[in-house]
Amino acid sequence: MIRVLLVDDEELVRAGLRAILDAERDIEVLGEGSDGADVPGLVRRLEPDVVLMDVRMPRVDGITATRHLVSSWGPDGPRVLMLTTFGNDGYVYDALQAGATGFLLKRARPAEIVQAVRTVAEGESLLFPAAVRDLVATRGRCGGDALRGAGLTEREGEVLRLMARGLSNAEIARELLVGVETVKTHVGNVLAKVGARDRTQAVVAAYESGFIDPRRPV
Fold it and tell me: What region holds the HTH luxR-type domain (predicted)?
Protein backbone atom coordinates (compact mmCIF):
# COMPACT_ATOMS: atom_id res chain seq x y z
CA MET A 1 0.00 0.00 0.00
CA ILE A 2 1.36 3.42 -1.02
CA ARG A 3 0.66 5.97 1.72
CA VAL A 4 0.06 9.51 0.52
CA LEU A 5 -0.17 12.91 2.21
CA LEU A 6 -1.94 15.72 0.32
CA VAL A 7 -0.87 19.33 0.94
CA ASP A 8 -2.64 22.13 -0.92
CA ASP A 9 -4.30 25.34 0.24
CA GLU A 10 -7.30 24.72 -2.05
CA GLU A 11 -9.80 22.35 -0.48
CA LEU A 12 -11.34 21.55 -3.86
CA VAL A 13 -7.97 20.41 -5.22
CA ARG A 14 -7.37 18.17 -2.21
CA ALA A 15 -10.85 16.66 -2.54
CA GLY A 16 -10.31 15.90 -6.21
CA LEU A 17 -6.92 14.29 -5.59
CA ARG A 18 -8.29 12.24 -2.71
CA ALA A 19 -11.14 10.93 -4.85
CA ILE A 20 -8.73 9.92 -7.62
CA LEU A 21 -6.17 8.25 -5.35
CA ASP A 22 -8.55 6.57 -2.90
CA ALA A 23 -10.17 4.79 -5.84
CA GLU A 24 -6.97 2.76 -6.31
CA ARG A 25 -6.48 -0.48 -4.39
CA ASP A 26 -2.78 0.10 -3.78
CA ILE A 27 -2.96 3.76 -2.69
CA GLU A 28 -4.22 5.21 0.59
CA VAL A 29 -4.53 8.92 1.39
CA LEU A 30 -3.51 9.18 5.04
CA GLY A 31 -4.30 12.83 5.58
CA GLU A 32 -4.37 16.38 4.27
CA GLY A 33 -2.70 19.70 5.02
CA SER A 34 -3.53 23.19 3.80
CA ASP A 35 -0.07 24.75 4.12
CA GLY A 36 3.59 23.83 4.12
CA ALA A 37 3.68 24.66 7.82
CA ASP A 38 1.54 21.56 8.42
CA VAL A 39 3.99 19.20 6.75
CA PRO A 40 6.55 18.40 9.52
CA GLY A 41 3.90 17.40 12.05
CA LEU A 42 1.84 15.42 9.54
CA VAL A 43 4.88 13.54 8.25
CA ARG A 44 6.01 12.63 11.77
CA ARG A 45 2.53 11.41 12.69
CA LEU A 46 1.45 9.69 9.47
CA GLU A 47 4.78 8.53 7.95
CA PRO A 48 3.68 8.78 4.30
CA ASP A 49 5.62 7.35 1.39
CA VAL A 50 4.73 10.24 -0.92
CA VAL A 51 3.84 13.86 -0.22
CA LEU A 52 1.79 15.40 -3.02
CA MET A 53 2.30 19.11 -2.39
CA ASP A 54 1.37 22.43 -3.97
CA VAL A 55 4.35 24.59 -4.87
CA ARG A 56 2.68 27.86 -3.87
CA MET A 57 0.96 28.25 -0.51
CA PRO A 58 0.25 31.35 1.59
CA ARG A 59 2.40 30.87 4.71
CA VAL A 60 5.05 28.22 4.03
CA ASP A 61 5.44 27.32 0.36
CA GLY A 62 6.15 23.87 -1.01
CA ILE A 63 9.79 24.68 -1.70
CA THR A 64 10.54 25.58 1.90
CA ALA A 65 8.56 22.58 3.15
CA THR A 66 10.46 20.26 0.80
CA ARG A 67 13.82 21.64 1.87
CA HIS A 68 12.90 21.05 5.51
CA LEU A 69 11.76 17.48 4.78
CA VAL A 70 14.97 16.60 2.96
CA SER A 71 17.22 18.13 5.62
CA SER A 72 15.27 16.47 8.47
CA TRP A 73 14.62 13.00 7.07
CA GLY A 74 17.30 12.62 4.40
CA PRO A 75 17.05 9.68 1.99
CA ASP A 76 14.72 7.81 4.36
CA GLY A 77 12.05 10.51 4.18
CA PRO A 78 8.99 10.58 1.95
CA ARG A 79 9.28 11.43 -1.72
CA VAL A 80 7.86 14.83 -2.67
CA LEU A 81 5.79 15.20 -5.81
CA MET A 82 5.24 18.89 -6.47
CA LEU A 83 1.95 20.18 -7.86
CA THR A 84 2.05 23.17 -10.18
CA THR A 85 -0.24 25.01 -12.56
CA PHE A 86 2.44 25.74 -15.15
CA GLY A 87 5.21 23.41 -16.27
CA ASN A 88 7.59 26.32 -16.87
CA ASP A 89 7.01 27.79 -13.42
CA GLY A 90 10.33 28.95 -11.98
CA TYR A 91 9.15 27.69 -8.61
CA VAL A 92 9.31 24.15 -10.01
CA TYR A 93 13.02 24.54 -10.66
CA ASP A 94 13.54 25.76 -7.11
CA ALA A 95 11.50 22.80 -5.83
CA LEU A 96 13.67 20.33 -7.75
CA GLN A 97 16.76 21.98 -6.32
CA ALA A 98 15.25 21.70 -2.84
CA GLY A 99 14.83 17.95 -3.22
CA ALA A 100 11.48 17.28 -4.88
CA THR A 101 11.50 14.00 -6.78
CA GLY A 102 9.34 15.38 -9.58
CA PHE A 103 6.48 17.63 -10.47
CA LEU A 104 2.98 17.19 -11.80
CA LEU A 105 0.64 19.60 -13.51
CA LYS A 106 -2.67 20.16 -11.73
CA ARG A 107 -4.47 19.63 -15.01
CA ALA A 108 -2.99 16.14 -15.40
CA ARG A 109 -5.42 13.33 -16.15
CA PRO A 110 -6.40 11.02 -13.27
CA ALA A 111 -4.43 8.12 -14.77
CA GLU A 112 -1.31 10.32 -14.98
CA ILE A 113 -1.68 11.36 -11.34
CA VAL A 114 -1.99 7.75 -10.19
CA GLN A 115 0.98 6.63 -12.28
CA ALA A 116 3.08 9.54 -10.99
CA VAL A 117 2.44 8.55 -7.38
CA ARG A 118 3.33 4.93 -8.11
CA THR A 119 6.48 5.97 -9.97
CA VAL A 120 7.96 8.04 -7.16
CA ALA A 121 6.84 5.54 -4.51
CA GLU A 122 8.89 2.87 -6.30
CA GLY A 123 11.99 5.03 -5.97
CA GLU A 124 11.98 6.30 -9.54
CA SER A 125 11.99 9.98 -10.44
CA LEU A 126 9.19 11.66 -12.33
CA LEU A 127 11.14 13.46 -15.02
CA PHE A 128 9.77 15.42 -17.94
CA PRO A 129 13.06 15.68 -19.84
CA ALA A 130 12.22 18.66 -22.05
CA ALA A 131 10.65 20.61 -19.18
CA VAL A 132 13.57 20.03 -16.82
CA ARG A 133 16.05 20.96 -19.55
CA ASP A 134 14.17 24.18 -20.32
CA LEU A 135 13.88 25.09 -16.65
CA VAL A 136 17.61 24.71 -16.08
CA ALA A 137 18.42 26.53 -19.31
CA THR A 138 16.44 29.57 -18.18
CA ARG A 139 17.05 29.47 -14.42
CA GLY A 140 20.23 27.47 -13.87
CA ARG A 141 23.83 28.56 -13.76
CA CYS A 142 25.90 26.51 -16.17
CA GLY A 143 29.61 26.92 -16.57
CA GLY A 144 32.28 24.39 -17.37
CA ASP A 145 32.03 20.78 -16.30
CA ALA A 146 31.72 21.01 -12.52
CA LEU A 147 31.17 17.24 -12.33
CA ARG A 148 34.63 16.53 -13.71
CA GLY A 149 35.89 16.06 -10.17
CA ALA A 150 33.12 13.58 -9.40
CA GLY A 151 35.15 10.86 -11.10
CA LEU A 152 32.37 9.42 -13.25
CA THR A 153 33.49 6.62 -15.51
CA GLU A 154 32.65 6.76 -19.22
CA ARG A 155 29.82 4.28 -18.73
CA GLU A 156 28.45 6.17 -15.74
CA GLY A 157 28.45 9.34 -17.86
CA GLU A 158 26.46 7.48 -20.51
CA VAL A 159 23.97 6.35 -17.88
CA LEU A 160 23.59 9.89 -16.55
CA ARG A 161 22.85 11.22 -20.02
CA LEU A 162 20.23 8.51 -20.54
CA MET A 163 18.73 9.36 -17.15
CA ALA A 164 18.42 12.95 -18.39
CA ARG A 165 16.35 11.64 -21.30
CA GLY A 166 13.92 10.22 -18.75
CA LEU A 167 14.73 6.57 -19.44
CA SER A 168 13.96 3.96 -16.79
CA ASN A 169 16.51 1.36 -15.67
CA ALA A 170 14.97 -1.20 -18.03
CA GLU A 171 15.09 1.23 -20.96
CA ILE A 172 18.71 2.13 -20.18
CA ALA A 173 19.56 -1.58 -20.04
CA ARG A 174 18.09 -2.11 -23.51
CA GLU A 175 19.90 0.96 -24.85
CA LEU A 176 23.28 -0.20 -23.52
CA LEU A 177 22.69 -3.92 -24.03
CA VAL A 178 23.38 -4.76 -20.40
CA GLY A 179 21.36 -6.22 -17.54
CA VAL A 180 19.00 -4.17 -15.38
CA GLU A 181 21.01 -5.00 -12.25
CA THR A 182 24.12 -3.61 -13.94
CA VAL A 183 22.23 -0.40 -14.68
CA LYS A 184 21.06 -0.19 -11.06
CA THR A 185 24.68 -0.42 -9.95
CA HIS A 186 25.72 2.35 -12.34
CA VAL A 187 22.81 4.57 -11.24
CA GLY A 188 23.75 4.04 -7.60
CA ASN A 189 27.36 4.97 -8.35
CA VAL A 190 26.27 8.10 -10.21
CA LEU A 191 24.06 9.25 -7.33
CA ALA A 192 26.85 8.65 -4.81
CA LYS A 193 29.52 10.44 -6.85
CA VAL A 194 27.30 13.40 -7.74
CA GLY A 195 25.96 13.61 -4.18
CA ALA A 196 22.35 13.35 -5.32
CA ARG A 197 19.39 12.03 -3.37
CA ASP A 198 17.69 10.63 -6.47
CA ARG A 199 17.73 10.66 -10.27
CA THR A 200 16.06 14.05 -10.50
CA GLN A 201 18.78 15.68 -8.38
CA ALA A 202 21.48 13.97 -10.46
CA VAL A 203 20.00 15.21 -13.74
CA VAL A 204 19.61 18.78 -12.43
CA ALA A 205 23.23 18.67 -11.25
CA ALA A 206 24.36 17.38 -14.65
CA TYR A 207 22.68 20.31 -16.40
CA GLU A 208 23.71 22.95 -13.88
CA SER A 209 27.33 21.85 -13.86
CA GLY A 210 27.64 21.93 -17.62
CA PHE A 211 28.21 18.16 -17.84
CA ILE A 212 25.15 18.20 -20.11
CA ASP A 213 24.35 21.36 -22.08
CA PRO A 214 20.68 22.24 -21.39
CA ARG A 215 20.56 24.25 -24.60
CA ARG A 216 20.94 21.10 -26.67
CA PRO A 217 18.77 17.97 -26.86
CA VAL A 218 20.22 15.08 -24.86
Answer: 145-210
Domain final position from 126, 152, 179: 126
CATH number at residue 193: 1.10.10.10
- Is the domain of 116 the same as that of 56? yes
Question: The sheet that has 102-105: what strands, in order across it?
Answer: 27-33, 2-7, 50-54, 79-84, 102-105
| Domain tally, the chain | 2
**What's the predicted TM-score (pTM) here?**
0.76
How far apart (Å, rounded) are the C-alpha atoms in residues 161 and 187? 11
Amino acid in position 50: V
**Residues contacting 19, CB < 8 A, separation 6+:** none
Distance separating alpha carbons of residues 121 and 184, to the nearest angstrom: 17
Q: Give just the sign of the alpha carbon dihedral 132, 133, 136, 138.
A: negative
Q: Residue 148's Cα: distance from chain center in Å? A: 24
pLDDT digits (tens, 9 = 90+) for 176-197: 999 999 999 999 999 999 888 8
**50-54 vs 2-7, strand pairing mode:** parallel
Query: Identity (one letter) of the amino acid at 25?
Result: R
Residue 88 sits in a domain of what CATH number? 3.40.50.2300
Through-space distance between the first and last CA atoms of the chain, rounded to whole angstroms: 35
Domain of residue 148 covers 142-209
Query: Which class for 64: exposed (0-12), middle (13-18), buried (19 or more C-beta within 10 A)?
Result: middle
Cα distances (Å, whole numbers) of residue 77 to 19, 151, 167: 25, 28, 24
